[in-house]
Design goal:
alpha/beta; Rossmann fold; 2 domains; six-stranded parallel β-sheet; three-stranded parallel β-sheet; 9 helices; 11 strands; binds the ligand Nc1nc2c(c(=O)[nH]1)N[C@@H](CN(C=O)c1ccc(C(=O)N[C@@H](CCC(=O)O)C(=O)O)cc1)CN2
Length: 285
């Protein structure tokens, strides 16, 4: 078996095309959505991701507000930028690019954000809304994964899903989304403390690998016919992405997300969707 591709690039392009029309409609009503980004430090990956987010904004007609601080920025300096974006009417949604340099209190900075402008769905109020099943912005990578699966007709209803990882952007919120009635999956969350990861993986219809451990998920651990999403980003000596999924998995799985070209573009598209939805909500109220 050679797995079919869960094509994030193509799916994200379709989402962006729909968003372009919705942004044009908002502009006709006098509303221009604006995405702010707060980027602290010089991590090359973070710079690349933020640049990609602003390229996407230009494509769909969303205005960009870029705020950059050096790696030496103090907690107070970052908090001042967050307060400034909270108050700026041109900024209808924004994100703080993670991870922040060591020494900064990430949770305190996220808590300071105006939840109505939280484009990532990572503010505690919005994570709480997700737990309570109330409407709000959904975390971009987890919801991007669900949209990618839906778009390719992969059955989520009733599926056994294994999520590997427990980080705040993917691992923690992913099971909350998958177990909503609209998705109806049964989820096992694995992490570095899991005793026998392979035993869990072998039962999974869908695997979301987000541990950041190169080639952690091996072909012999995958149930034939499963869907496998590779969300891990490690780099080899030449800077090339190495995912959490061993390339041999393509011979066992029915569906596989390429990395790059799978979940990454969906994360970016979902961010734009959150910005547009927030602007539409504001325009209606
Ligand atoms: N505030 C946030 N910080 C981070 C998030 C997040 O959702 N919100 N997620 C990740 C990084 N991330 C978004 O910010 C992200 C990762 C990857 C991509 C992407 O398009 N990747 C490309 C490959 C790019 C490359 O060559 O390096 C792909 O997969 O095709 C976009 C966004 C951590 N931080």
């Amino acid at each position: 078996m050679t797995a079919q591709i869960l094509d994030g690039k193509a799916t994200a392009a379709a989402i962006k095309s729909d968003l372009t029309a919705r942004v044009a409609a908002l502009k006709e009503k006098g509303v221009t959505p604006g995405l702010g980004t707060v980027l602290v430090g010089d991590d090359p990956g973070s710079h690349k991701y933020v640049a990609g987010k602003h390229r996407d904004c230009a494509q769909v007609g969303i205005a960009s507000l870029q705020r950059e601080l050096p790696a030496t920025a103090t907690q107070e300096a970052v908090e001042a930028v967050v307060r400034e974006l909270n108050a700026d009417p041109a900024c209808t949604g924004y994100i703080v690019q993670l991870p922040l340099p060591r020494g900064l209190d990430e949770n305190r900075i996220l808590e300071l954000m105006d939840p109505a402008k939280d484009a990532d769905g990572l503010h505690p109020t919005n994570l709480g809304r997700l737990v309570l099943n109330e409407p709000g912005p959904l975390p971009c990578t987890p919801y991007g994964i669900i949209r990618l699966l839906r778009e390719h007709g992969v059955e989520i209803n009733g599926a056994e899903v294994v999520v590997v990882g427990r980080g705040v952007t993917i691992g923690r919120p992913m099971p909350l989304l998958l177990t909503r009635r609209s998705e109806n999956a049964t989820v096992t969350q694995c992490h570095t403390g899991t005793r026998d990861l392979a035993a869990h993986l072998r039962r999974a219809d869908i695997v979301v690998a987000a541990a950041g451990v190169p080639h952690l998920v091996k072909p012999e651990d995958i149930k034939p016919g499963a869907a496998v999403l590779d969300v891990g980003v490690s780099r080899d000596e030449s800077g090339k992405i190495v995912g959490d999924v061993h390339p041999g998995v393509a011979e066992v799985a029915a569906w596989l997300s390429p990395n790059p070209g799978g979940v990454g573009p969906m994360t970016r598209a979902q961010l734009l969707a959150n910005v547009v939805e927030a602007a539409e909500r504001a325009a209606e109220s």
